[in-house]
Amino acid sequence: TGTKGSYLPKHLPLLPGNVMNMQFQESRFHKSHHFDFSNDVPVYQAEKPPIGGQFSPETARKLSKTQASKYPVDPDAEKLPAWVAFDRQVLCFHAYFQEAVHEKREEKFRVHKCIIYFYLEDDSVQVIEPKVANSGIPQGTLINRHRVPLPEPDLEGQEYFSADHFNVGKEVTFYSRTFRITDCDEFTRNFLIKLGVKPGAAEPTPEDPYTQCRTTMLSSMRPKRPYERNDTLKQFLDNNRKVLRFYCMWDDSSSVFGDAREMTLHYFLADDTIEIRETIPANSGRDAVPQFLKRQKMPRNFEGLQGPGGRVTEFYTDKDLSIGNVLNIFGRKFVLCDCDDFTKNYYSSKFGIQDFQPIVVRPTQQQATKRHVPPYNGFGSEEDSLGSCVSLVPKPPRKDFNKLMQNDNMVLRFSGRMDTARPIDADRKFIISFFLADDTILVFEPRQRNSGIVGGKFLERMRLKRPGTDEYYKASDLFVGATVEFMRHRFILHDADEYAVSYMEAHPEQFDQSNVGAVAVKLQNALAQDQGMLEQFHAALSNFDQDANGFVPLEVFEKACADARTPLTGHEAKTLSRALDIGDGNATYVEMLKRFGFIREGAGQGDAPGAAAAAASDGAEQAGVPDGQAAAQSEEGVRAASEAADQTA
């Protein structure tokens, strides 16, 4: 007999020379590689082809059987691998299979409804049986997702299910269990049409005899008979932590030393039990007990204690409780007077009751006596002394630690004098320090030789209230020109140190006196409205400026603001003069007046303001510029005047 691969007749003996290799015509004998393309994706082949790049017929047949499904591809479209092109795309088929039932009268077979999922990315199949309540059958995933082999290879030698094997009306067999496909979803139907496969018409799923029997039994069920057991577990799960609350009254006036006592009745919906608690008013002399009646089922018709073998069958339920009803609680009459909002909503939704008007007015509660705080005795701080009036064990007042940390060692110092008519006190000098960390004030009097007054600490560091109010002094209340009153002593602040002025200018939103824009607008409006004030202000500055260079010392500028009786305070005048400072202690006033429009650009340094001031005033008033915008413009003008004067100098 011949051998495989030989072209000689089979009757020749198997001897050397009678067998020829059919690959004698091959010309490719190169070493094969492991790298190839699968579904247009470069992959690594674990099984390396032999010399020449061709597998044996058995291996080639085995590899051809495991290939994935081939789908028509648009030649102009971008080539994508199957796991990208068909990501999250699944064919969904509705199917059923029958299972024989032996030795049972109600059914001979059982129909299982299933859902078959076919994943296009890898041709895997998954079968799921939806769970049916109270079926007693293990349901869920019948076949996990994987490539399901065919019962036997098809004509093409394929061994696994592909998309061509599924259609409505077909039967597929998975591991000796036959499924009948009855329907599919819309996506699956459209996909089959695109493949050139005509989906079949939807088929009805046959009815299960046992399912029909159960449906008939459920439809004919009636409420339980009185002798059947009540499902207390369901009542507990549905109504756990749900309690009806009624406010009731027990009138015990008929007994010796008895009176009307207020009670609170709790009805627990979880197990139909009742609990009663007593509402004990203050100073009533009664002991505060946790419960007046412990939680238990309450008999409806109480006629005395039951003897041996006695049994109570009727108990109070939620339908027996309503406002106005009288309950017999072990021989005591309790009148239901009112209920809470949850109880009202419960009876309104379940029983349709809408009238919840209380029938008994509760005893009027005594109004709390207003506590009058005793006056401050002067010992310690006022907040600390107030703590002893609030509790027996006073607690120290809370402090703003953020403010303490941010403003630590930050002090605003002002020099002042007493506002008094006494000659002996008129020449006294004081240093008033305001501590930003805790808003405390310290007054110190420097020693003066031959004054007859011993200097030193005039007022201890403490928080002080403004006279006639309950508000404490703030940092914004102290500025140059302000009049303050400490312990019935009036002080006029006439100067501040450099740190205080710089700090206030750095925080114009907190200190209005240091807001350059607002101060400039205030001065501009005042000079524009009063021509005499403008001339007096200009004359006071021009008289000192003999050289007509447009510069005067800062002190002269502040004095001119005071002599012309401008509405600026001392601190506002200082703020404006510092803004006009060119760096050598002189303020440029001519540039400021030009920016305000009171002096023409071509006028000399000593020219008095004329009609330009009135025109500027009328134009500013008719323009209707908002205050904030005007302040910004004035501040910019003051800054520009100072820079221009600095360049000129």
Residues in helices, as a percent range: 25-40%
Mean pLDDT: 80
N-to-C span: 126 Å
Largest sheet: 6 strands, antiparallel
* Low-pLDDT segments: 1-7, 611-631, 644-649
How many H/I helical runs? 17
Strand fraction equals 15-25%
The total count of strands amounts to 22
Strand order of the largest sheet: 6-5-4-3-8-7
Shape: flat
What would you report as the Rg, rounded to the nearest angstrom?
Answer: 52 Å
Structural class of the secondary structure composition? alpha+beta
What does this structure look like?
The protein is an alpha+beta fold and 649 residues long. It has helices at residues 57-65, 82-85, 186-194, 209-219, 232-239, 341-350, 382-390, 401-406, 423-426, 498-506, 516-529, 531-544, 554-563, 570-579, 589-596, 611-623, 627-648; strands at residues 35-38, 41-44, 90-100, 109-119, 124-129, 140-146, 171-174, 177-184, 243-251, 260-268, 273-278, 293-296, 326-329, 332-339, 411-418, 429-435, 440-445, 456-462, 483-486, 489-496, 551-553, 586-588. The strands form five sheets. Strands 6-5-4-3-8-7 form a six-stranded antiparallel beta sheet, covered by helices on one side. Strands 12-11-10-9-14-13 form a six-stranded antiparallel beta sheet, with helices on one face. Strands 18-17-16-15-20-19 form a six-stranded antiparallel beta sheet. Strand 10 (260-268) and strand 11 form a beta hairpin. The model is unreliable at 1-7, 611-631 and 644-649 (pLDDT under 50).
